Structure prediction request, 150 residues.
Amino acid sequence: MSQASHALQETQAVVPPAEAKRAEVKPMPLVPARIDMHPSVFRVAFVCWLALLSVFWVTFFVSTNALFMVVVSTFYAVVFFGVPYTFWRINPKRAAPRQGLHEFTRPPLETMYGVVTGRDALPQVILAPLAVTTGRTGMATPIHAARAAY
Prediction:
């Protein structure tokens, strides 16, 4: 008898197909989910990007070549944030949310990846700019320390 057929017989002896039970699947309860993100989430993300640009301005202010790239990045940021803001201003006015950011984090929110709570959606928006800002601040600290030494 070959090893493959012996392993197959052992597997069948442990869990015969006729006796295997299916796991009970419980459907998720239907809860109405919001589709709009709270405006404060975007404000927090915008503040993270402003902090990142501030780190660049402070770090590269002494070098004209590097400062030129910071100016280009600043103009890019103006367009990056200005176009959505302009479209938001063109759209018909929606009612301002009556709840604060803390109340936003409790009920479900529909995203392109499925329904999540606002507490789970907030890090999806904030994590990338916050991580980049933190990393760039960590990189700028030795640059400033090296300049202070001379």
